[in-house]
């Protein structure tokens, strides 16, 4: 898969995110996708990722802006940088109480692609920054 195809895949993935189209996101993932949750553990599988999306939808409403996508020439590795504009809707375990607080948070992802699908997503953002924003 060449660079252009990987960038097109990531464009579809992030457009689906912004549209709240969870199935569209899942369609971009390999069945055995590895998801490295920010400051958390690696979880494996599309079903596990779908459960993660359900949890995120319950606790957060987010939109990504200023998305910049990069990929290697062979398309096997990529990165995304963006700004998350969000609202904290329901208290997430171990985090401050939710009361609809809004936040703006720089974030990024490292991505592996094989066979036209995302096989790994490694997410990064500054949890201390997010916590300070929602803790008021």
Provide a brief overview of the structure.
The chain has helices spanning 3-19, 22-26, 46-59, 127-135, and strands at 29-36, 42-44, 60-71, 77-88, 102-114, 117-125.
Would you mind describing this structure in some detail?
By secondary structure, this protein is of the alpha+beta class. The protein has a single domain (3-135), classed as Roll (Nuclear Transport Factor 2, Chain: A). 33% of the residues lie in helices and 42% in strands. The chain is built from 4 helices and 6 strands. The protein has helices at 3-19, 22-26, 46-59, 127-135, and strands spanning 29-36, 42-44, 60-71, 77-88, 102-114, 117-125. A 6-stranded mixed β-sheet has the order 2-1-6-5-4-3. The chain is globular and about 45 Å long.
The number of helical runs is: 4
Structural class designation: alpha+beta
If you average the pLDDT, what whole number results?
A: 96
Largest beta-sheet characterization? 6 strands, mixed
Q: Identify the CATH architecture.
A: Roll
Gyration radius from CA atoms, angstroms: 15 Å
